[in-house]
From TrEMBL:
SUPFAM superfamilies: WD40 repeat-like
Acidic residues composition-biased segments: 157-172
One GO BP: ribosome biogenesis
GO annotations of cellular component type: nucleolus
Organism (species): Olpidium bornovanus
Domain Histone-binding protein RBBP4-like N-terminal: 32-149
Domain of life: Eukaryota
UniProt-annotated stretches for the region Disordered: 149-173
Pfam families named among the record's database cross-references: CAF1C_H4-bd (PF12265), WD40 (PF00400)
Keyword annotations: Nucleus, Repeat, WD repeat
Protein name in the entry: Glutamate-rich WD repeat-containing protein 1
């Protein structure tokens, strides 16, 4: 009777550990460990710097636009992920099982499309600012992340045999050049000026100063081993002094009006800085309609003089720089709590996304904002006596309460107009697709078991959850590599591409 006991014990020791899907809110039991599933990513890399970075921006490099995909043949159509209608012109990534449907003589024909493999490894350039333990230790990092290979899959997992496995074991390389920076860096934004070789980055310092740097020399040095950066390249080309010693977080460059920079501070003031033939100049007149801290600013992707801002006063406001009295012309009561972040959709210019201190993500149709205000009669927008009605409360076109902590960053995809990503203080990055609709046989969100008996309602629009970082502060989509997201957190940087893209 006692004979088989040792054999049973050996079998228990050899038994593979149970693997379960982790969902937010689930408590890890003793002996359980949270690890990422490599099959959920095309690519995932983690990197760290000497000091954590609160903010960063991605350089729009010259290595090629949309360099991870190929175009459809003209006249082809397909049903994309989450799309209910065929697209007549689009993109398709290698590894997608769908065939191309072409229209020939009025007859749709399905034609297999054989594509070359995605070109790994990727290279990413970025600029970031530190949060050191003393003001004089802070720096601006100009970085080059290279050898970003696709994620290695476990043996037996479904993968593309055509992919070149070479380099999978190579570690990513992080190179950088530094610029000394007095004070912690609260925000970093890059100007994208295609008309010149200049590459200007603006930094919001916690001293209240906004510095503009020409980082062209640092970027060039990253591609030339042993190159020395001139001493003058470590000095700002201009400093915005108008905020005094009041710090801020809101900042954005215009993509359509070269050299225009907006900065908003915690006192509710917004200043406009413009590049001229002789340098930069800042208008002394501040934009003032917010009654609390300005948290984020976004220039219009299509209009040179229009921008939006959000505030701890719970509002989102739209401004026109031509209005002489520097007051907002449109606005809404967006959230009951602070509005931390906004993102203006560059592909569908009437859509604006916002994230609140209460964890709510909302998407707004800005065409509904106009019902709340009446601008003065002057068609040139120079009226000093513009009449404003009270703020309106339109319903958002979409709203999600998934994050259980403040939303710290939000951004629309530069490739798909219905896709956006958000980061939260709950250590999550959530990716959403507004074009996805719930199955008619289902009732809204899908209920999933967290493993400890609790139910979690998962909206059908939620595509992906990225975790594993601590205190995530900011995210950005790469404008040249489809589906690639970069994040910064107290624990370092992540570069990843979900399996959905």
């Amino acid at each position: 009777v006692d004979g088989p006991a040792p054999q049973l014990e050996e079998e228990e020791e050899e038994r593979e550990p149970e693997v379960r899907v982790y969902l937010p809110g689930q408590q890890l039991q003793e002996g359980e460990e949270l690890v990422h599933d490599a099959s959920a990513y095309h690519m995932l890399h983690s990197m760290s710097s000497r000091w954590p970075c609160l903010s960063f921006d991605i350089v729009v490099d010259k290595l090629g636009d949309d360099r991870s995909t190929v175009r459809f043949p003209r006249g082809a159509a397909w049903r994309g992920r989450g799309s209910r209608f065929p697209r007549t012109e689009g993109y398709r990534e290698r590894g997608d099982a769908r065939d191309v449907v072409t229209l020939t003589n009025g007859i749709y024909r399905r034609v297999p499309l054989f594509l070359p493999p995605v070109q790994y490894p990727h290279t990413v350039y970025a600029v970031a600012g530190t949060q050191a333990d003393s003001p004089e230790k802070n720096e601006v990092y100009v970085m080059k992340m290279s050898q970003l290979n696709r994620t290695a899959r476990d043996a037996g997992e479904d993968s593309d045999s055509e992919d070149d496995d070479g380099g999978l074991d190579d570690d990513p390389i992080l190179e950088h050049r530094v610029i000394p920076h007095r004070g912690g860096v609260s925000r970093v934004r890059l100007a994208k000026d295609a008309s010149s070789c200049l590459m200007h980055a603006a930094t919001w310092a916690d001293t209240g100063k906004v510095h503009i740097w020409d980082i062209s020399s640092q970027l060039a040095a990253l591609d030339v081993p042993g190159a020395v950066v001139p001493h003058d390249a470590t000095k700002p080309v201009y400093t915005v002094e108008n905020h005094g010693d009041v710090e801020g977080f809101a900042m954005d460059w215009s993509d359509v009006a070269t050299g225009r920079l907006l900065t908003g501070d915690v006192s509710g003031r917004i200043f406009l800085t413009t590049r001229t033939q002789t340098g930069y100049t800042t208008s002394p007149d501040a934009f003032t309609s917010h009654t609390s801290s300005v948290e984020d600013i976004q220039f219009s992707p299509v209009e040179k003089t229009v921008f939006a801002s959000c505030s701890a006063d719970g509002t989102v406001r739209v401004w026109d720089t031509r209005v002489a009295n520097r007051k907002a012309v449109l606005g809404i009561n967006a959230h009951e709590s602070d509005v931390n972040v906004i993102s203006w959709n560059r592909l569908t210019s009437f859509l604006l996304a916002s994230g609140s201190d209460g964890g709510e993500i909302s998407v707004w149709d800005m065409r509904k904002f106009s019902a709340g205000f009446l601008l003065g009669a002057d068609s040139d927008c120079t009226a000093h006596d513009a009449v404003f009605r009270p703020l309106v409360n339109p319903a958002p076109v979409a709203s999600f309460l998934w994050h259980n902590a403040p939303v710290t960053s939000i951004e629309w995809s530069p490739f798909e107009s219905s896709v956006l990503a958000a980061a939260g203080a709950d250590d999550q990055v959530s990716i959403w697709d507004l074009s996805v609709e719930a199955d008619v046989e289902e009732e809204g969100a899908v209920a999933m078991n967290t493993g400890d008996g609790a139910k979690l309602e998962v909206p059908p629009q939620l595509l992906f959850i990225h975790q594993g970082q601590r205190n995530i502060k900011e995210l950005h989509w790469h404008r040249c590599i489809r589906g690639v997201v970069l994040t910064t957190a107290a624990s370092g940087f992540n570069v990843f591409k979900p399996i959905n893209f």
